[in-house]
Amino acid sequence: MRRLLPLAVVTFLLLAFAGSCKKEKKVDRAAGLDPERMATMSSHNVETLISDSGIVQFKMLTPIWLVYEEVDTPCWKFPQGLYLERFGPTHKVIASVAADSARYFTRQKLWRLDGHVEIKKIPGDLFQTSQLFWNEKHHRVYSDSFVHIETPTHVLEGFGFESDDNLTDYSLRTPSGIFPIHQDAFGNRTAVAADSTAH
Length: 199
Hints:
six-stranded antiparallel β-barrel
């Protein structure tokens, strides 16, 4: 299914749904079910557009979207993977994000992406890691894990990554390698080890 939902509408629907389920939760507790462990809402095979101030910002696709509003730290869970596309001012895709699983902590406005995490930034930058955090409040993206970055001219690798959320101003805390990219006559690109560039 495909829907166009403003961010405010998504939040309102979730809160309204959570409020309408409170009586049922009391019955569930009496029946021996723990509302702390139960999703307030679940959706399957989701494809939705998310807008802010009437402007479409993201396209989100996920097999399962679970919402937990009755827990100490309310969150959304995407246990079977998440794919996001981010749109620029001209409505063209400027970046995509894919992860094996994800959580969004609604109060903190914090995303946590796990597994094989891959960000592709148009026109050609690629970021890969096993865990990545995106703090929407502070517009920061960061990771303590190993990170592999490909740009049109270099491959960078290291541990610990921090960036603005446009991925235009980023740094590696502990770099382990910076390799220039060589492109052959057929357009194939390969990273060249630093000691092999002398010839």
